[in-house]
Write a structure and sequence with these properties.
By secondary structure, the chain is mainly α. The protein has six helices and three strands. The protein starts with a strand and ends with a helix.
Length: about 160
C-alpha cells in the first residue's frame, strides 16, 4: 500500500486487548490472524461506502447542493457519495506482518475524504466535509476478538 491515508487505531476493547496479550505470549508470528483481520477490515470498510457512514455509525454528510446539481447534469446520482467510478472504494487494501495490520488507500485524495478539508480551502475539491470510512467499528472489534480467539485456540492446541 503506497502512501495515501492511514488512520492509526487504538483498540479499546478489553476482550481484544486480552486476546492480543495471550497471543503474544503464545506465539511470536501473528501473520496468519493479521492477514485475516486485514481482509475483514477491508470488507467492513468497503461496506461503509454502501451504508454511507463512519465506523461509529454516523451518517456521512450529503454532497453539497451545487455538487448534487453537477452530478445530476452528468447523469450520476447525488446519493452515491465517494463513489465516482469506485476508485476510492476499490483502492482499500491492507498490509499485514508478524504483529500488525494497516488498512488504507493509496489514492492521493483519500485523506481529504477521510479527514475533510479546512474552512480556508476553496469549496469543491478541497473544502469538503470529512466522511470517515477508515477505522474500527464495534462490530470490527468483536470480529477481531473472534479471529484472535480462534487463532489462540488453534495455537494452544
Amino acid at each position: 500500500m503506497a502512501p495515501g491515508v492511514q488512520v492509526p487505531i487504538t483498540i479499546e476493547s478489553a476482550q481484544v486487548k486480552r486476546a492480543l496479550k495471550r497471543l503474544g505470549a503464545a506465539v511470536q508470528d501473528l501473520s496468519e490472524p493479521m492477514e485475516e483481520i486485514g481482509s475483514s477490515l477491508v470488507t467492513s470498510t468497503q461496506q461503509r461506502f454502501e451504508e454511507k457512514e463512519s465506523p461509529e455509525g454516523e451518517a456521512w454528510q450529503p454532497v453539497s447542493k451545487a455538487h448534487a446539481r453537477r452530478k445530476v447534469e452528468e447523469g450520476r446520482s447525488p446519493a452515491n457519495i465517494l463513489r465516482f467510478k469506485n476508485y476510492l472504494l476499490q483502492s482499500i487494501s491492507y498490509l499485514a506482518d508478524r504483529g500488525s495490520v494497516a488498512v488504507g488507500s493509496n489514492r492521493v485524495y483519500a485523506a481529504i475524504h477521510q479527514l475533510g478539508g479546512t474552512e480556508d480551502m476553496a469549496p469543491g475539491p478541497a473544502g469538503i466535509p470529512a466522511r470517515p470510512y477508515l477505522g474500527v467499528s464495534r462490530d470490527d472489534e468483536r470480529e477481531i476478538g473472534a479471529i484472535l480467539g480462534d487463532y489462540l485456540g488453534g495455537a494452544a492446541a
